[in-house]
Amino acid sequence: MTVTGFVVNKGRGPFNAAFFSALGPYIEWHVRRHKRRVFADLPETVVELGSGVGANLRYLRPGSTLVAIEPNAPMHRRLRAAAARRGVRLDLRERSAERTDLPDQSADSVISSLVLCTVADPAEVLAEVRRVLRPGGTFRFVEHVAARPGSPTRALQRMLRRPWAWTFEGCSCERDLAGLLRAAGFARVDIEPYRLHSPFITFNTQIAGIAYA
Ligand SMILES: C[S@@+](CC[C@H](N)C(=O)[O-])C[C@H]1O[C@@H](n2cnc3c(N)ncnc32)[C@H](O)[C@@H]1O
């Protein structure tokens, strides 16, 4: 099935839904400090790109609304169940982040974690985020990025790029997302780079931050 360019893989779609359910708590443990900072004080209604199975529901207050842009249908059952458990109202849209179909300047806050690595065109997604954010609205992100050129981690990211992308439905460890965020035309972009110490070495170079419309 195709949702504005996103192709759901019959094998890897369900595999990734199961993978992120099983390893979600472990990934969360590694990134929690950064998420607590950038996802603090979210408004009543939040738009999330690529919600997956609901890793970020915990950063919303019970009773608030999540507009989840998630084109990958195998994620939906777990996402619905997680939202119900957390008391978050779920407005699930089977759309891609490149074309959310949300009105112009309709959102106070858009969030994403580990999604800009996977979308087909991150620059197009950032333009879409700017379109839907109200002036002064925030895009808050936690993403993994390419390591420093010439570093051993960068070499490993290059070496493993094909099996990694195959397994994780197009995910790339080689994106300069900080550069794209700075070039996207936001009024201000605050970015903190950091390194995790997980066994998933190619995924350890990350950024977290807030871009202001
Ligand atoms: C690595 S998972 C991360 C899920 C979740 N945000 C988390 O932190 O656990 C990437 C997610 O992005 C979604 N995704 C992939 N391409 C997308 C696109 N073009 N638009 C929106 N979501 C997309 C996938 O379906 C998947 O749920």
From TrEMBL:
Domain Methyltransferase type, chain residue ranges per copy: 48-140
One of the record's GO molecular function terms: S-adenosylmethionine-dependent methyltransferase activity
Statement: the UniProt record of this protein carries the keyword Transferase: yes
Keyword check for Methyltransferase: yes
Highest taxon in the source lineage: Bacteria
Transmembrane parts of this sequence: none
Pfam families associated with the record: Methyltransf_11 (PF08241)
UniProt record, GO biological process: methylation
Keyword annotations from UniProtKB, A to Z: Methyltransferase, Transferase, Ubiquinone
Official protein name in the record: Ubiquinone/menaquinone biosynthesis C-methylase UbiE
